[in-house]
């Protein structure tokens, strides 16, 4: 942290308020300073503000209009029993912020990476979503549809690439030259060499 602070301060010559956001799962209190000292001399003491997400009560942030706060509640302090409530409140926050689809999709992907619901929890979550206001439900449907379409498109692209790799493997077994395999499959030389070495 100190190195980043020093570089920014050197470059911009402005006052900088250093804030560290700890997002790991360790509950132990993290430091809010960095010291460089010897037994005979204190060379440096760098202090910064500390935000340790897993020690923050998530309910303190649900009235925020800040998209980053919405995504970060996924890493805050909540119990297993509150997981669905966290998801519902995140959904409500996102719907009320009325962000464009691209930003909403990024925030949803980040959030869902950390808050994974079981099938039963997901069903219950969908039932609770229906209790939101009509405007919130409309926003949720739009965000969810876009998020799932993006996932489906990525899945299709990944599937197509896997299919090209299978074709390349068959061509390798037939003894076809690498250049011709590259032309037929649109795979790179490195990808084909990797398949040969497998």
From TrEMBL:
Domain of life: Bacteria
Species this chain originates from: Desulfonispora thiosulfatigenes DSM 11270
Record-given protein name: Transposase (putative) YhgA-like domain-containing protein
């Amino acid at each position: 942290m100190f190195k980043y602070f020093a570089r920014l301060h050197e470059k911009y010559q402005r006052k900088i308020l250093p804030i560290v956001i700890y997002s790991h799962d360790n509950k132990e209190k993290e430091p809010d300073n960095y010291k460089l000292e010897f037994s005979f001399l204190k060379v440096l003491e760098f202090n910064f503000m500390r935000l340790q997400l897993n020690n923050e009560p998530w309910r303190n942030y649900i009235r925020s209009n800040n998209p980053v706060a919405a995504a970060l509640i996924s890493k805050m302090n909540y119990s297993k029993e509150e997981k669905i409530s966290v998801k519902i409140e995140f959904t409500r926050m996102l719907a009320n912020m009325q962000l464009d689809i691209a930003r909403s999709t990024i925030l949803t992907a980040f959030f869902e990476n950390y808050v994974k619901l079981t099938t039963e929890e997901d069903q219950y979550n969908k039932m609770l979503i229906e209790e939101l206001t009509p405007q919130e439900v409309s926003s949720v449907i739009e965000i969810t549809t876009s998020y799932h379409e993006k996932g489906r498109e990525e899945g299709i692209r990944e599937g197509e690439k896997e299919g090209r790799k299978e074709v390349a493997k068959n061509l390798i077994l037939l003894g076809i030259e690498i250049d011709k395999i590259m032309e037929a499959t649109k795979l790179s030389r490195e990808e084909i060499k990797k398949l040969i070495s497998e």
